[in-house]
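Re: export button greyed out
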Amino acid sequence: MNFLEAFYISLDSIWSNKMRSILTMLGLIIGISSVVTIISLGNATQNTIETELSSLGVNSITVYLNRDVTIKPSDKLIHSDIDMIEENFSDAVMYATPSISKGGVILSDVSETNVNFTAATENTFDSENLNMIEGRFLNDFDSIGYKKNIVIDSDLATELFGSGLATGNKILISTGATSQSYFVVGVYEMKESLGGFSTATVYLPYTTMDAMFNMQGILDSLKITFKSSVEDPNLEIKYIINSIERKHSNIGEEVYSTFSAEDLIDTVSQTLGLVTLFIGAIAAISLVVGGIGVMNIMLVSVTERTREIGIRKALGAQYTDIMLQFLIEAVTIAILGGIIGSIFGAIFTSVGGNLMKIDSVVSGDALVMAVVFSTSIGIFFGLYPANKAAKLDPIVALRHE
Amino acid sequence: MLTVKNLNKIYGTGEISVHALRDVNFTIIEGEYVSIIGPSGSGKSTLMNILGCLDQSSSGEYILDQQSTQSLTGKELATVRNKKIGFVFQSYNLLPKLSALKNVELSMIYSGVPNEERKKRAKEALIKVGLEDRMNHKPPELSGGQKQRVAIARAIVNNPSIILADEPTGNLDSVSTGEILKLFDSLNEEGKTIILVTHETDVADKTKRMLSFSDGYLIKDEVMNR
Ligand SMILES: Nc1ncnc2c1ncn2[C@@H]1O[C@H](COP(=O)(O)OP(=O)(O)OP(=O)(O)O)[C@@H](O)[C@H]1O
Ligand SMILES: [Mg+2]
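Workaround output, generated via the alternate export path:
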């Protein structure tokens, strides 16, 4: 008997027990669809996070103080480090920007709003990928002149000034004991943040900020943006750190750490990959349960059809004929379950992607895996019942009532 | 040609063992038409199952076409059942979900006859047993006599030399019995060896040789005058 013949017989049998076949497939449909959905959505989330993180600037590296070593006052990064970097590494470095953030409150007639004050230079606009929707960003004149000019985000602008123009208004800012009034020169577009919550960030000239908080040129950290011609920023940063160490006379003390968006992307991808794998593994267990369902039905089917097997054997069916018939039946049920499961998985993925507001594509890997998995399940769990059927003694099978 | 020598069949072991065949010896040559009779439990079906290579004897020899069946593997026995023997059962043993045509095709599936030829030969066999108008009916839609004719068509379609029938008319009325026996007659005329188990002497009377069994023994082997 050939393969096709066995396949027809199996299809006949599946078709004549429609309800039972569907119920048997159900376990696999649930298992496969959840695995496909989880893996696809996991991949999609990962991609989304990666693109979003890349927009932070893959080409930049932040230098900050290592929290694991004791820091002497002379170790602290100061504004002259920025000048040194821009001067000495002008081949590789596009610009360096200071990072200083402090909390403060904006006072209006009716409310108080907590904000983050962040020091800015002209270059901050580029290094933070900002988009102006009103007015202008801060420039060198603001810095040189210690201007009390600020740039606020669009959400804060709406909160304070409604739909009217924010630019040109004065707002009152309180930092602890004193409060002073500042002039809004521009509004930048608020980016949708991943977490969904964030404190408003208000930019002001770093000189102004330095004076306001009396910081004497000390920075929290500094962000170096490399020219796109630089092939390996991670190598370049080693020389820069070395320079900074020489300037602060702390060579080899590992006072400075670095951080790049690339590092963050790696960490996030890894974590997300693990989570996806873990949930996927749990879903895979349901596949095994589905497989046991297939085996169970096949065993019932073999018992029920013992007489049929006897008749077939009496007419000349050999071990392999019967084996093939039942194995193909199990595999067909499993693959049909896999296909239906994949279809549902694709539907769930696009629905889930819409709900999560991410670009979701059914992962090709997941589909290939679904088919491979369901075939293997069919073979693995079909083998035992098929063997049981095939090695039945013809006369014993014929006598079966 | 088939020969059995000192054939014994013992079911079970110890206290509950049943000695169903005891030292049975006979030879049947090509083209014979043999009936096997005897009271219930005398071992007729047991003998037929061994002759049909569905079961094996406990001791003794069964030689089919110069070949001892004892030494055959399961696979070889399946081939013998497929090619040399056509079995007709009292209870028809048709697959209820397949049409008459598909039922007849079964043994040809296992001998690898291509689809087209299989259909053609199955149709011819069904025409031969007079069921040209019932080919696509399923067994539950057929009468007992019609079912048995499908079974006979299935038994002859692979062109075996021997047809074994264990009480083929046991469930049938006299009219159907007559039709079935007529079929066997014409098959025998074509040269097929036919061995037929029956309770009824008027059925046995239609055959050319009669083997009588009692309590597992072959007690009489007579040629019939027709
Ligand atoms: N599978 C079996 N296990 C144990 N004993 C069996 C088995 N099959 C038949 N027997 C016994 O062997 C003996 C012969 O049985 P067999 O079926 O050959 O009789 P039979 O001549 O065909 O009877 P009937 O005319 O009623 O069909 C009986 O005593 C029966 O009980
Ligand atoms: Mg009997």
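Chain B touches chain A through 26 residues (CB under 8 Å). The button fix ships in the next patch.
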